[in-house]
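Recall the central idea of this unit: under ordinary conditions, the amino acid sequence of a chain determines the structure it adopts. In this exercise we apply that idea directly, starting from the sequence alone.
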Amino acid sequence: MNRDGMADFLERLGHRVVRDGRAYWYDQRSRFMAAIPHTVPLVPDRDEQRRVMRASGALGVRHLAPVNGPGRMSYAFIVDDPAYDLQMLSGNTRSKVRRGLKQCEIGRMDLKEVRAEGRPVNDDTIRRLRFTKDVYDWNKYWDAVESSPGAEVWGARIDGTLVAYTVILHVEGCAEILVARSHSEHLKHYPNNALIFTAVQDLIRRDDVDRVLFGFESVDTVTGVDAFKDSMAFRRWPIHQYIGLHPLAERVLGYAWTKSLLQRLVDRRRDSEFWRKIEGVLIFHGSLADRSETGKEQPAWTS
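Accordingly, the structure predicted from this sequence is:
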């Protein structure tokens, strides 16, 4: 699948897509446009950004930039070594994968199977992660997946029951893990470890796959959400994340009193996912200081 195919997939999900210049852009969040393909670094172009914001009514844009370019030092979780194997995992994680493989039946699945059986697994995951609701309507999501030739699904079964699944989208040499869902009742059997390991090992050994992507550093300032990806030997690929804001927002944020007011607001509402994301966006943009990193050495992720 090329970027046109990914754009079509996102439009089927209900996203607004703006096709402009070197990249396509979609409303990743309300009033915020992100560039696709996700793993292609861009050097910011102010004119392009303004065209995208005018066309979409967005307040800002977000994309990857080269490590020697503008933006904030960040990382993506990738596997790009075809030799990916159990020996790359810690002893504890190897044990979990082996136990999962012993207790679960792992394999690629027909999309219609997961659509028919996976709703309880999805809903349980949403509750466990404490989301108020799913981002997409169940049927609309699977309509989009089934209409996309670059999509595939892997699943884990125990005694015939679907207990975990993952959806993967192939875009220009990258196999991107879009979602990973599992039922809490069966986590003691380690289906996630066995499923992700098996799928990634198969994917990275294909001739048309250069890397497997499992997301980026989140703008949400809550820490600890990436431990599972680290444990499965996903490498932290060094990148810059660039966030550009509407010229009016840039002007307002240039005042010291504005930054001080925003910092007080996020400090008082740190238990709110919305305000944590606002803080994260402004930290990545450079408008607010990252207090979590104060006095700490920045991690030197190796390429």
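The mean pLDDT is 83.
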